[in-house]
Amino acid sequence: MIINTGQRTDIPAFFPEWFANRLKEGYVCVRNPYNQSSVNKYMLNPQVVDAIGFCTKNPAPFFSYLDLVKDFGQYWYVTITPYGKDIEPGVPDKKEVMESFKFFSKTVGINCIGWRYDPIFVNEKYTVDFHIEAFTKMAENLKGYTNHVVISFIDIYEKVKKNFPDAMAVSAEDKIRLGQEIIRIAKANNMVVKPCAEGDFLAKYGADCSGCMTVDMYEKAISAHLNVPRSNVKPARATCACYLGADIGAYDTCRHFCKYCYANNDLSQVRINEKLHDVNSPFLIGGFREGDIIHEANQKSWIDNQMSIFDLL
Q: Cys-Cys link to 311, which of 40, 118, 300, 307 (CB 3.0-4.6 A)?
């Protein structure tokens, strides 16, 4: 099976010791955000967990714990955008993050890491030309360390309106111009552009619109074919083609405080949850509660041992 860590928060950046303890103890408990008394318990064992998916803006805090995931299949997305502290107040200097990216690429391998340049928004400061220039510099820096880059354009959800009231949807004209330029620049730096939940309007310009966290991506990362069951996780965006599975994070816990964040709804709750975090708890936030119903997840390996690595080529 696949365990995800990055749909609700940034575990490598803010909760590395907690996750390390979960790996050492071999299990994690996850409270259902929509039914607080319902708890799923997942075993963290490479015999049943084929891959762990990470999505982070700062992988460096987890570096000292990498030995704990060496026996697991893994896939890392690192988000690196050109925004300043006015938009991403808690994100480290982007030069540092790019160096961390390159270290990680050499550690886990180019098929196990991808760059996310998203979400893209446009305003008076972060213009189309600004994005083109910034993307060019970043792509040149990361050349040879990943084979693709994910892009998406900002979605104005209610929580985005609340935390980023000045945000506006990107116009169709700007999407096409930015998409074309980013595809051209990426190609010059040996990368394929993979739009995230943007439909297929960029396919004719050379983008791979098959999805950004797909079964195929995991298979290439672990060099094995996976017989995956149908996912019962409904994506936030109807056009999302990613394979979404068990996520062990919790909403309202990411302290990057990005204005465009899709996972934080109540910024004051983030600070409350920070105080409720216990590195020794099976839960990311808090612990067991009276009335909890514990569901032992039905876990098994999805690797098809009848196929070889050559079947994936």
A: 307
Give me the mean pLDDT over the 59-79 stretch.
Answer: 96
229 falls in which pLDDT band (50, 70, 90)?
confident
Written as six digits, the tokens of 153 are 């354009």
Residue 229: cis peptide before it, omega within 30 degrees of 0: no
Residue span of the structural domain in which 34 resides? 2-312
Asked whether the beta carbons of 55 and 77 are under 8 A apart, the reply is yes
Domain count for the chain: 1
Give residue 73's region: left, alpha or beta (phi > 0; psi -120 to 50): beta
Cα separation, 49 vs 46, whole angstroms: 5
Q: Which residue has the higher pLDDT, 118 or 246?
A: 118
Helix spans in the chain (H): 11-14, 16-25, 94-108, 128-142, 158-163, 172-188, 215-222, 267-276
β-strand pairing of 293-296 with 27-32 = unpaired
Angle at 70 between CA 65 and CA 71, to 5 degrees: 135
Sheet holding 51-56, edge to edge: 192-195, 148-153, 113-120, 73-79, 51-56, 2-4, 246-247
Q: What is the pTM of this model?
A: 0.93
Q: For residue 310, what pLDDT band results from cuts at 50, 70 and 90?
A: very low
pLDDT at 313: 53
User: CB of 88 within 8 A of CB of 258?
Assistant: yes
d(CA 179, CA 219): 27
Strands across the sheet containing 35-43: 27-32, 35-43, 293-296
How many Å apart are CA 28 and CA 39, to the nearest integer? Answer: 10
Residue 111 Cα distances to 66, 77, 251, 309, angstroms: 17, 11, 29, 14
Helix (H, G, I), strand (E, B) or coil at 78: strand
List residues bridging with 226 in a β-sheet.
Answer: 303
